[in-house]
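General statements about sequence and structure are easier to judge against a single worked case. For one protein, we set the task of working out the structure tokens from the amino acid sequence alone. The sequence in question and its structure tokens are set out directly beneath this paragraph.
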Amino acid sequence: MDLTQTPLCDKIEKEVPERKNHYYAVSAAILGWTLEAYEYFVVVFIVDALAKDFHVAKGAIITTFVATLAMRPVGALLFGIMADRYGRRKPLLGITVYFLVIAALSGAAINYPMFLILRALYGIGMGGFWGVGASLALETAPSRWRGIFSGLIQAGYPLGYLLAAIMARFILPALGWRPMCWAGILPTIITMLLIYGSQESQAWDPGSRPNLHEIVRQFWRHRRGFAYVVIALTLMVGLSHGTQDLYPDFLKAGRGVSSNLVAEVAMIYSVGAILGAIVVGQGSQLFGRRRTIIGALVICVLAMPAWAFGNTLLALTAGAFLMQVGVSGAWGVIPAHLSELAPDGVRALFGGLAYQFGVLFGSPAGSVEYALKNSYGYGWALAIFESITIAALVVVFWLGPENKGKRFFGNN
């Protein structure tokens, strides 16, 4: 039998040339995740301004971090089911419209309760974007580029942090915090255009359209793998948010660094995070997902003394730069690793919901560290929490599964 004459091969031959515009999907995932991260981290830099404007304690503003993170699983569940049933593009467009509205309203908040509610609602959109966006990008792109695209997508997160730091340095002193919330509106419209110009994922079968019962049944069959991924991502969230959320406040309150200098330090370590995500993500294509993640965690350990206990601003900056190379380096592997571990029929739901459950369970990281500082001091609180987290992560990834190079339909 001549396999080249089968209908399946005819379909693949027609579809492969059309995949040249997978760059639209990857660009949309990168830009969208950058904007999601920007809108989250912008609050990290305006805690003092918000507390003053809304006449509340700083701890109340920090609570909005938890509210955002805690609502992300809701978005992953809703939009993940839609993506596995109706395709990736339409739900992703819906998320960006939702994000646009919430960002506009957040900048117009008139009091703390309104801002808190909007941050919780924003978490729903943030939770929906990652799983659907990563699925569209990694299912559309050739498998041989999966590592580098994984790193690029995850690099959007520290890039959002970097943009928030830049805005805090130059916009906040001149115009206040509200324009910082509105700054993402135009790029969000660009993201919508990129999504519109992208192809639907070839790993999603438009003829199947599984109903909710079928999606739940397939998901339940993989519950053990899901539980493992949730544990791993809970610890990963503790690693990232535990090293990022309170670090600007640590520099100000714990080391007496001025707000302008804190923003500049954040810019520097955000560059390290971007480089780490891209380089380590690509490295996982050569050395495997789990080994590369563990290697990135070793970098975090080496950075710990200067990051938490540096006696000079230069030492703290160098430690923070190296720490974020390791943290985002480990995260740069996650989109590819998680997509390869996820079952084919429920990849958007499995990956997105696992990620956001990890966010939910890991969301108290900043609050725990903030509480520990009263007993151990700021530097020791950060170091103790992250040392335990890194040790647990090494064990989890050392013993865990890997499906590097798993083929999605239509991948080269």
